[in-house]
Amino acid sequence: MLRCLLLLLALIFSRPALAQLGSGPPNITPQLVVDGPVQPGSEVDLAILMTPAPGWHGYWLNPGDAGQPMSIEWQVPAGASVGELRYPVPQTLTIAGLMNYVYKGPYAILTRLRVPADASGLMPVRAQAQWLACTDQICVPERGELRLDVPVGGGSDERARFDEWRRKLPRPLGAAARFDGVGTAVRLGIPLPASVAVQEPHFFPAPGTDLGHAAPQRFLRKGDLLIAELTTKSPGDRIEGVLALGAGQGLTVAATPGSVPSGGTVIGAAGRNDWSALGWALLGALAGGLLLNLMPCVFPILALKALALARAGGDERHARRDALAYTAGAVVGTGALGIALLLIRAGGSAAGWAFQLQDPRTILVLLLLGTAITLNLLGVFKLPVLGGAANPRGGFATGALAAFVATPCAGPFMGAALGAALLLPAAGAIAVFAALGFGIALPFLAVAFVPALRRRLPRPGAWMVRLQRVLAIPMALSTGAALWLLWRQGGQAGLLLGLLAVALLALLLFLYGRSQRGERRWGWLVLGSTVAGALVLALLLPVPSGATRSLAGVRAWSEAKVTSAQAQRRPVFVYFTADWCLTCKVNEANAIDREAVTDAFRRAKVEVLAGDWTNGDPAITRFLEARGRAGVPLYLWYAPGRSEPEELPQVLTPAMLIARAQRP
């Protein structure tokens, strides 16, 4: 009733503007565009490109509290047909307390055009359309005839433009959502892997879903479940709509009544007002950083700094200056890693803490650092940054080094704190990462600023040398772990290069240590050779490709690769996945990425190809549409000698895949 009243008022007060419609251009200009070239008997995408004038906006299929969606009547030749309209993810616009779902810039509404098999020449496509164009003050109902002569058997290539428009369409979630509630409050549980970044979520209800448009929405994360707390008058037996994830990306959601768990971590705009979540994340990061000092990769560095402080004789001014520099280095180090992680996730990649360890070149750097620190602890050479006199530059470098070598370690409290950080706004997330560095530096900071603790430091003596030798053991174990990880990522070539790098570094540092104890003229030459050798080996190190890593030997999907494998009469297994598809991830973990399946595929020389639809890859979208599929997962098995694939069920088992690999 309210919407009808608002539309009536809009018509009354917009009469002056309506009178000008016939004499001037529309405020939103429509245009029909077809994705050519067009072949007889095919289906192609048809776009209604809507271009609002500056200051004007159009409406989604559910306009919200006020507005009107586009209505259209098609006239096409016999045998041709036009499908349903597919809208891009909208934006919210609140005016005078009314929430509208709008498009403020150019947007394309897509549909599917079926071309008759006997079509030829120019096929006329006509449509009578009506739409509402509004500013923040007035609304103007507009109408017009859309005309396009589709060139059958030809036409310009519009793939680039259509690919961009397809990316803005919401993608099917492909998993069952549930909702429950009491009174007007409803909780909507949406299966969504925890690794999927959700920036500014909003749930846009589809027509027929009675939600309070202007009511606040609250979103929480609980493992692989995204929970939306919404307001409704009557939820009915089904809730449908589009979940906006941010940056113009979204998922279509259909939910039925069911149990939704309570609790979770608040995210999105509501999370910015939840200071308790940020406070707990900061405390968790502080505690996690503090406990990291007991880990084998960090403890030797902290102990060396304490030894350096003991050697300094307890000079208060030097101790405090060095402690502040060490703290600044640790905070800047973890903060910089946090910023890099947020930038990577903002680019669409699902990365977590220690993301840099996915690159074997970083592992090589850690391996060389661990080797150098171990040799330093054994007395092969002296590294002034770790064991020398207190100075700001050395303290800052040591703090940054401690932050860097801490990344392979995972201590208590860290997982929950850093997981919460990735769900907070950028400023809060960076603060949590900085708190981790502050926790790493806290023991040394306490010793420097609390005289009672500093007085308890033992006097310098021979015990320091013995302690350094003992500290070399955990550091050597951390170095061995880095070598193992290098072998896992780089294979035998990575392992051999790592061993060569360790041997070369040990030799050069041995020579450098001799130069420190005698002639110093060639010490810098040795250090320069060490750095140059490390750079050369890093360049030679094999780097894994960015393809999906869930299965050994997997390659990124393309139709050309399928054709090439079929020409070699090899079986082909193709799976289409997405980071936000929980069903996909369960199948990959339970059925695809299994040792028995990998062995069977290797024996049968199966070509495994993965199509990642996380960001709406247009080539995958076209392929799915050609097979009549709207979303993922999709699993295809191409048997040798057969052009048409077998479509496998959406729930896979290892036995199902092994049986197909063993077919003659």
TrEMBL record:
Q: Signal: is it a keyword of this entry?
A: yes
* Leader sequence residues: 1-19
Keyword Signal on entry: yes
Show where the Thioredoxin domain sits: 537-664
List where the protein spans the membrane: 277-302, 323-343, 363-383, 395-424, 430-450, 470-487, 493-512, 524-543
Keywords attached to this entry: Membrane, Signal, Transmembrane, Transmembrane helix
Tell me the SUPFAM superfamilies matching this sequence: Thioredoxin-like
Protein name per the record: Protein-disulfide reductase DsbD family protein
Native species: Sphingomonas arvum
